[in-house]
Design brief:
Layout (H helix, E strand, L loop, with lengths): L2 H19 L1 H9 L6 H14 L9 H15 L4 H16 L7 H19 L9 H13 L5 H18 L23 H18 L2
Helix pairs in contact: 1-3, 1-4, 1-9, 2-3, 2-9, 3-4, 4-5, 5-6, 6-7, 7-8, 7-9, 8-9
Length: about 210
């Protein structure tokens, strides 16, 4: 197994574990302006990822991510399944079967994931969705000086948290939260906070590897 495949497994396992462990927190966040099912949907989907963990093909990072994406698409309910599943599948395609994922490739994978989310949800930057955390965090990762995986994870997490907190100033233009109009201002977007928490948990775990 290549180091990149090992790293990819580590990242996905961290994301999945965080989704399960923070189910109530993510649900409560979503209930502020949404329908409150985000935590439940993510937890059930990523529980299935963890349950199927040993069965996934680990030939290379791309193949592994495709299998994870397929599970998410089929097992996460509501709008979260297609959005998160597409993100994983697009990231897998960007990895293109390569066994060595350098910083530039990871950035390309994240950009492709964002494009997949936009294609599915029709959201743009500033619409108060999870891409308002992913895009600035990816920008920060791309512009950071080369460093270790742990350093890259922390750079991404710090930028994601700042951007997620900043969504409190935005008016929601997508999803159920958009129905509340101006009242959607004042609290951060649940999806953006989920990204920040997942990134922070990953950075913490990576530093302890």
């Amino acid at each position: 197994m290549s180091s990149s495949t090992d790293d990819t497994e580590f990242v996905v396992h961290s994301i999945a574990t965080t989704a399960v462990e923070h189910e109530k927190e993510f649900g409560d966040l979503d209930a502020v302006a949404g329908d409150g099912d985000l935590g439940y949907s993510l937890a059930r989907g990523f529980e299935k990822v963890l349950a199927d963990w040993d069965s996934y093909d680990r030939s290379d990072p791309s193949t592994f991510l495709k299998k994870v994406g397929a599970t998410i698409t089929s097992k996460i309910g509501g709008t979260s399944g297609p959005i998160w599943g597409t993100a994983f599948l697009r990231a897998a395609k960007a990895a293109d079967g390569g066994s060595d994922l350098d910083r530039a490739t990871v950035v390309e994978m994240l950009r492709s994931a964002v494009q997949g989310i936009q294609d599915r949800g029709k959201a743009e930057l500033g619409d108060k969705t999870l891409i308002d955390a992913v895009v600035p965090a990816t920008d920060a990762l791309e512009s950071a000086s080369p460093g270790s995986g742990a350093e890259g994870a922390r750079t991404f997490a710090s930028a994601a948290r700042e951007a997620a907190d900043g969504t409190a100033e935005l008016q929601a233009r997508r999803g159920r939260a958009s129905y509340t109009g101006e009242r959607s201002k004042g609290s951060p977007d649940a999806g953006a906070v989920v990204v920040a928490v997942m990134a922070e948990e990953l950075a913490d775990r990576w530093e302890k590897r």
